[in-house]
Write a structure and sequence with these properties.
Number of strands: 8
Radius of gyration: 18 Å
Largest sheet: 5 strands, parallel
Oligomer: single chain
Number of helices: 12
CATH class of the largest domain: Alpha Beta
Order of helices and strands: EHHEHHEHEEHEHHEHEHHH
CATH architecture of the largest domain: 3-Layer(aba) Sandwich
Distance between the termini: 33 Å
Structural class: alpha/beta
Number of domains: 2
Strand content: 5-15%
Length: about 230
């Protein structure tokens, strides 16, 4: 079965960027399932719907679920995820205290994606992506984030990376780029000189501003590819 799992971040990025409407079209063209896990649903709907500031965003995600665009994958090995969270977070310490580096939602997503052989996990947050793809950069990232020396158990990080190296990670910015290549954003091209350049710049920077971990250089590279 064709399937893609979503972490919390990319859905929030698309909602805040007013681009969540591309999801049902992308799903139809993909011809498979778009899944979220219960922990991701909790982060997207159950918790924010109780906070006035985030209530409407939660309703937008709820509509995607009610419309069948996002389906909840409930067969999660909760003990395995919990053990994995404890194991992974124990690899990072500040002043000999462990750090809460990875969250349950993202771990659920990669765990079930690996178990069922899903095509990809959509994840905007940099931490878990680095753990899987470039674990050697984790220490540098955390020290920049917390402005303190971080002790890293490299053997644990290597073990985690080896376990999940087969999981393909993509970001919301790749989904937006695909939508552009499919012509889904054509109606937004302004009737101005270099209109397509303006549009591509606008949507890529919107994803960055709304949570997608992407560098300025990456944005320029993606723009060059799309244009």
């Amino acid at each position: 079965m064709k399937a893609i799992f979503f972490d919390t971040g990319p859905i929030i990025t698309l909602v805040l960027s007013r681009l969540d409407w591309i999801l049902p079209i992308l799903k139809e063209k993909y011809g498979g399932k778009f899944y979220i896990t219960p922990a991701v649903k909790f982060e997207l709907v159950d918790r924010p719907i109780k906070i006035k500031r985030f209530e409407f965003e939660a309703l937008q995600v709820m509509k995607l679920i009610n419309d069948g665009v996002l389906e909840i994958y409930s067969d999660v090995p909760h003990k395995k995820v919990k053990d994995l969270k404890l194991f992974t977070n124990s690899a990072f310490k500040i002043n000999n205290k462990t750090m809460d580096v990875v969250q349950e939602g993202e771990l659920e997503a990669v765990t079930v994606a690996l178990e069922m052989g899903a095509d990809a996990v959509v994840m905007d947050e940099r931490t878990l992506r680095l753990l899987i793809e470039e674990s050697s950069e984790m220490e540098k990232l955390l020290e920049m984030r917390f402005h303190r020396n971080v002790t890293v158990d490299l053997s644990k990080i290597k073990q985690f990376s080896q376990q999940f190296k087969k999981v393909k990670i993509i970001r919301s910015i790749e989904l937006v780029s695909t939508a552009y290549k499919l012509g889904l954003l054509n109606s937004f091209v302004p009737k101005l000189k270099q209109g397509r350049n303006i549009l591509v710049d606008a949507v890529l920077w919107a994803t960055k501003a709304n949570g997608c971990a992407v560098t300025n250089q990456e944005i320029e590279e993606i723009k060059n590819y799309l244009l």
